[in-house]
Design brief:
Radius of gyration: 35 Å
Helix content: 40-55%
Number of helices: 33
Structural class: alpha+beta
Oligomer: single chain
């Protein structure tokens, strides 16, 4: 009986050797793949007791070695497994579509109600909304159709002869498509479900012919008759589209599209683009054995179409996300082993240059031929298995994108609807004079903003024009250099176009050769100088920062005045003077933004800004394309620029002196290119997206300003009775707000892609770390680790994981999103915990922060215990310094109109350097209290730190934080829990106790249990403490006043030297 194999460290396969029983470690598939010497392969095969009978050469032996390793290792993946995987994903996708469809239908009904209000009440709200969100009723229909669409193709495109059909056969686990070099030249093949194996041949004239396969018929042989290239490749095929119907269950949910080579014919590229609007997944296959690697000009041609394409019927919905594409470097076995690393790096670099937003996690190197050989013997190769892993990871992202497109439109519609409804509701709360005053104020501010926006546009255009001038000068010097002239005039035999075909074909070949030579010169210049790529990042940051800080922020502030909501001013991180902490490579955000199609625009620079989907300005897809396609246009445009001025030349002139003819023509074209406007046109084409973005901003910003002017004018002129606003608008506002919360909860639960891979986030497991670090009413903080993604990387990085209590629902989702958003925007204050990113633990969303070690309650206890062991009391300066850090953090938050919420010694953390860190941030709002019917049964618990007004149901405000500061000071002074000596068990008892102006007992003599024993210090501490927990919010100290007065001297609480709140203190302080 054969002895079993085992897995050693790093999952290497180990086998027992004969005799001594020692185990030998076998190589991995990758290591076998790198064997380039026949002798080495033979030696390894003999070591593993493998027969070499019938094998011919190195490749056969390597295949036998890989097969042996797979048999011994027992790989988990099986041929055909991908089918089940895709089917499960599709089923999950259907559930989410149905969820969003339900919300679309419910909101649509309310939108129809707005149209009815327009007719019955002469109401202008519907018209105002239609100007903000044009044709919104038609858009509802469009997005409902998107959610019910059953079109779900997996599109496989790529370069000619790259092996697209072979890859599809692997995915199907069946030979379906012909794979010869002449196959499937200009025919698109769709593989769909059918009860009977059938080929449907679609002719160019629109007719269709069905060929039903009989038992024993070869599908591959039959297809060859219709899709294989015959004669001139430039001639159109008789069958531009072929459907292949197979009785396979999984094809009921999806279908697979095999596209011809990209870039050869414009009509093919356009067809591929149409499939992309519905693509379930997009796989682009690269012919890795090409000289020069990936054919970027062809990929750029496709990207240019993708970047500017829109979903049918709408001008503002992007239809495809670049980040969900999958790139397969096929024929990897034909790339010399010594060159593979460089080839892969070069491929990734070129992909990122022309497919902005892509990353190396989307690139997979493999050999479909090798994978096919192993599949035939019942195994999945290592590289194909990695590809399937990537497919399993990236397809859900593609599915998310398709749903996000509709989610984002509905989110914007609801945001603008709620904004208008709030404006009308506030209208009913204002007098006629107040309305008029607000109208004049807002009108003045909007006109000023319009002038400011004009200045911003002029500044941006000046910067782009300057880029053009600098590039022109640099390129002109380069193109007139002797080195470049030698490059364009030097031709080898391999470069010469062959004399064949018609006159037109020959002229085209000559033009193409010269065009490619000049294109190569320009590409090499950009590769060396990286001018346009650097300018891309500079312009992106400039545009985003200018828009965010100069336009959007001011417009949001003005709209806050219109609808009565407070807008919190946030400074970019650059203003804070604190450097960004270094992030691990896998956590770094791309500097290329995902404008208006990701949750936020976030630039990982010192000038980080955030632009959320709640922006009042909805920029059309053209602006998105401008940023994404910034590196796309130049080379493609150049080909047209170079070719458009040429005239046909006599072929016999070329035949007589090929080298001289090409040299003269190339030099002439180069000189003409430099002297004429073509060089400027080329440079401007490279920066064309920036100009286009400017045009879009110049259109949409004034439009939105005018829309707000129209709104305040309508409000000012609206003379209806205030009851109208109460009867109609207030209930509708509540309904729409509820819809918006439900939509946001759907986003968090189903769509929000973590910026930290959940597989790398884990709770710390060491025994010493049991239990949460901090625990409050809303959330708890636990110790965690960020695990390395790659073998051999540095060890786990400590972090803090914040988990919110209970499931994120429509009731608390806004608070969760608000906190995450604010943590990203605020500067890195010393006494605020710093956000690393968003992730998930299981299905629960969580925030990941920099590491902390304990809560402030434990820290204070340790300080007291350490002192007591020395028969002393904790130094007052240490206790004061600790509390001072808390108030420093609060002072910063309060200065921004923010509050901590749920503040206590148990919700404030301390890091390893004993620096205090506040852990919550939010805007003032109503606290989450128990349902009124459960007041008598809900335990008081963490509610004891809530101020009287909050317990009564009023908003939690900055003064509420200061109330909690008073209780924290009491607990520091007496090392107990507030109210622990009182018989307070339920929320109802707590509310009655606190709202009757009763507080924890505070003896006048510090010797009666206090840990601050010096009378002068004790008097200062308790006096400030009492002024913090005053019953009336306006009587409490602010954070700044706390810092000012804690250092004042006083011998007793009744001393005249206690100048702050003395009258209040003497009148209201109660000792129990």
């Amino acid at each position: 009986m054969a002895e079993a194999a085992s897995k050693g460290p790093g999952n290497e396969v180990t086998l027992p050797t004969e005799g001594a029983g020692d185990e030998m470690t076998l190589p991995s598939e990758e290591e076998v793949d790198e064997i380039d010497k026949l002798a080495k392969a033979v030696k390894l095969a003999k070591k593993m007791n493998l027969s070499l009978k019938g094998l011919k050469g190195l490749n056969d032996i390597k295949h036998r070695l890989k097969l042996h390793l797979l048999e011994k290792a027992g790989k988990s993946r099986k041929p055909g497994e991908v089918i089940n995987m895709v089917t499960e994903m599709r089923s999950r996708d259907e559930e989410r579509r149905e969820h969003l469809l339900g919300l679309l239908q419910e909101v649509e009904k309310r939108a129809m109600g707005l149209m009815m209000m327009k007719q019955e009440l002469d109401d202008q709200l519907a018209d105002q909304l239609d100007r903000n969100v044009p044709n919104f009723m038609a858009k509802f229909k469009l997005h409902k159709e998107r959610m019910t669409s059953r079109k779900c193709p997996i599109l496989v495109a790529g370069e000619t002869s790259a092996g697209k059909s072979s890859l599809i056969n692997l995915l199907l686990d069946e030979e379906v498509l012909p794979t010869s070099h002449l196959s499937n030249t200009y025919t698109i093949c769709e593989i769909r479900y059918g009860d009977v194996r059938t080929i449907k041949l679609h002719r160019r004239d629109g007719t269709c012919e069905d060929r039903v396969l009989e038992e024993g018929d070869s599908l591959v042989d039959l297809l060859k008759k219709y899709v294989e290239e015959k004669g001139d490749r430039d001639q159109p095929t008789d069958y531009p589209r072929v459907e292949i119907l197979l009785p396979r269950e999984f094809l009921k949910d999806i279908y697979i599209v095999d596209s011809p080579g990209i870039g050869e014919k414009e009509e093919i590229t356009k067809q591929v683009k149409e499939y992309l609007t519905e693509a379930f997944a997009f796989i682009y296959v690269i012919k890795s054995d090409n000289a020069g690697g990936v054919q970027t000009d062809r990929l750029q041609a496709l990207l240019k179409e993708v970047a500017t394409m829109k979903t049918s019927g709408t001008e503002d919905i992007p239809a495809f996300s670049v980040k969900t594409a999958i790139f397969v470097c096929n024929k990897w076995d034909q790339v010399p082993i010594a060159e593979r690393k460089l080839v892969k790096e070069d491929t990734i670099r070129k992909l990122q240059a022309c497919w902005s937003g892509s990353s190396d996690r989307q690139v997979f190197c493999m050999s479909t031929a090798e994978a096919q050989r192993l599949r035939d013997q019942g195994h999945v190769s290592a590289d194909f298995s990695r590809f399937l892993d990537g497919l399993e990871r990236l397809i859900p992202e593609s599915l998310n994108w398709r749903i996000e497109v509709s989610y984002r439109w509905l989110d914007y519609f609801l945001s603008r609807t709620i904004y208008h409804l709030r404006a009308y509701v506030q209208q009913g709360e204002q007098s006629r004079d107040e309305r008029k005053a607000k109208f004049e104020l807002v009108k003045s501010r909007l006109h000023a903003l319009g002038d400011q926006a004009d200045d911003v546009m002029k500044m941006l255009r000046s910067n782009v024009d300057s880029c053009v001038d600098v590039a022109m000068q640099s390129l002109r010097e380069h193109l007139t250099s002797d080195q470049v002239k030698r490059t364009v005039t030097t031709w080898t035999e391999a470069d010469l176009p062959k004399v064949e075909g018609t006159l037109n074909i020959m002229v085209k070949k000559i033009k193409t050769a010269i065009s490619q030579r000049i294109q190569g010169v320009l590409s090499d210049w950009e590769k060396d100088q990286a001018f346009f790529s650097r300018q891309r990042e500079v312009l992106i940051e400039l545009f985003a920062t200018a828009f965010r800080t100069k336009i959007e922020r001011n417009l949001l502030d003005i709209e806050g005045t219109i609808d009565g909501t407070a807008v919190v001013p946030m400074e970019p991180a650059a203003d804070c003077g604190v450097e960004e902490e270094e992030e691990t490579t896998d956590q770094k955000r791309s500097k290329l933004p995902q404008l208006f199609i990701e949750p936020h625009l976030r630039l990982n620079t010192a000038g980080k800004v955030t632009l959320g989907v709640t922006s009042p300005i909805w920029l059309p897809i053209g602006v998105v394309a401008a940023f994404f396609g910034l590196s796309v246009y130049g080379i493609v445009e150049l080909k047209r620029i170079v070719e458009r001025s040429r005239e046909d030349k006599e072929v016999n002139t070329y035949q007589q002196d090929k080298y001289g003819y090409l040299s003269r023509m190339a030099l002439k074209e180069l000189e003409q290119f430099v002297r004429s406007n073509e060089l400027r046109d080329y440079v401007r084409s490279q920066l064309k997206p920036a100009y286009y973005c400017l045009e879009q901003l110049q259109e949409v910003v004034p439009k939105q300003i005018q829309l707000d002017l129209d709104l305040v004018r309508d409000l000012n002129e609206d003379a209806r009775d205030e009851k109208v606003y109460t009867i109609y608008y207030s209930p509708l506002l509540q309904v729409m707000d509820n819809f918006h919360r439900r939509l946001k909860a759907f986003w968090v639960q189903e769509l929000w892609a973590p910026d930290i891979d959940p597989q790398t986030v884990a709770f710390a497991t060491r025994d010493v770390y049991e239990g949460p670090i901090c625990s409050g009413l809303r959330a708890e903080l636990k110790r965690g680790e960020l695990l390395p993604q790659e073998v051999g990387s540095a060890g786990a990085k400590p972090v803090t994981i914040k988990l919110f209590r209970g499931k994120i629902t429509h009731r608390n989702v806004m608070e969760f999103l608000q906190e995450e958003d604010i943590f990203r925007k605020v500067k890195k204050h010393l006494n605020l915990i710093h956000l690393t990113g968003f992730s998930r633990i299981g299905h629960l969303p969580c925030l990941v922060f920099t590491p902390v070690v304990t809560d402030l309650r434990t820290r204070i206890s340790d300080i007291h215990q350490s002192a007591l062991m020395k028969n002393a009391y904790a130094p007052y300066d240490v206790l004061l310094g600790t509390m001072m850090q808390v108030v420093n953090g609060l002072e910063y938050l309060h200065s921004k109109g923010l509050v901590h919420l749920d503040l206590s010694l148990s919700t404030v953390a301390v890091d390893s350097d004993n620096v205090v860190k506040l852990t919550n941030i939010g805007k003032p709002r109503e606290a989450s209290l128990p349902h009124q019917g459960s007041f008598d049964t809900t335990e008081a618990g963490g509610y004891v730190y809530l101020a009287p007004e909050v317990l009564r149901g009023q908003d939690y405000v900055t003064e509420s934080d200061m109330y909690a500061v008073g209780l924290m000071m009491w607990e520091i002074c007496y090392t107990g829990t507030a109210y622990v000596d009182e018989d307070i068990r339920t929320f109802s008892e707590l509310k009655d106790f606190v709202c009757s102006n009763r507080r924890p007992k505070t003896p006048e003599d510090p010797s009666e249990g206090a840990y601050i024993r010096e009378p002068r210090d004790y008097n200062k501490w308790t006096a400030v403490m009492a002024c913090c927990w005053a019953s009336e919010p306006e009587s409490r100290l602010t954070a700044s006043c706390w810092k000012e007065n804690i250092n004042k001297t006083g011998d007793s609480r009744s001393s005249s030297r206690l100048s702050f709140h003395d009258e209040h203190f003497q009148a209201n302080y109660v000792v129990l």
